Amino acid sequence: MKLLAQHLSDGKPHVVDAPLPQLEPGRILVRNRYSAVSSGTEGATVRSARKNIVAKALERPKDVKAVLELARRQGVVQAYRAVSKKLDAYSTLGYSSAGRVVAVGPDVVGFEVGDAVACAGVGYANHAEYVVVPTNLCARLAPDADLKLAAYNTLGAIAMQGARQADLRLGETCVVIGLGIVGVLVCQLMKAAGVKTIGIDVLDSAVTKARELEIDAYRRDNPALDDIIARQTRGLGADAVVIAAGSESLDPINYAGRIARKKGRVVVLGATPTGFERNPDYYPKELELRMSCSYGPGRYDLDYEEKGRDYPPGYVRWTENRNMQAFQDLIYERKLDLAALTTHVFPIDDAPQAYDMILNRSESFLGVLIEYPEANDVQRVTQEARRETKKSKSTKNEATKKTTFGYAFVGAGSYAQGSLLPNMPISRSFRPVAVLTRSGASALRVAEKFGFAERASNADEIFASDKVDVVFIATRHNLHADLTLRALRAGKSVFVEKPLCLTLDEFVELRDEYETLTQQFPSQKLMVGFNRRFAPTALALKDRLADAPIAVTYRVNAGAIPKESWIQDAELGGGRILGEVCHFIDFAAWLAGSAPTSVYAAAMRAPNALSDTLTIALRLADGSIANINYFANGAKAIAKERVEVYQSGQTFILDDFRALTLYNERGKTLLVKGRQDKGQREMLARFVDSIQADATPAIPAEEIFSSTLATFGARESIASRQEIALQ
Question: Does some domain include residue 366?
Answer without folding.
Answer: yes
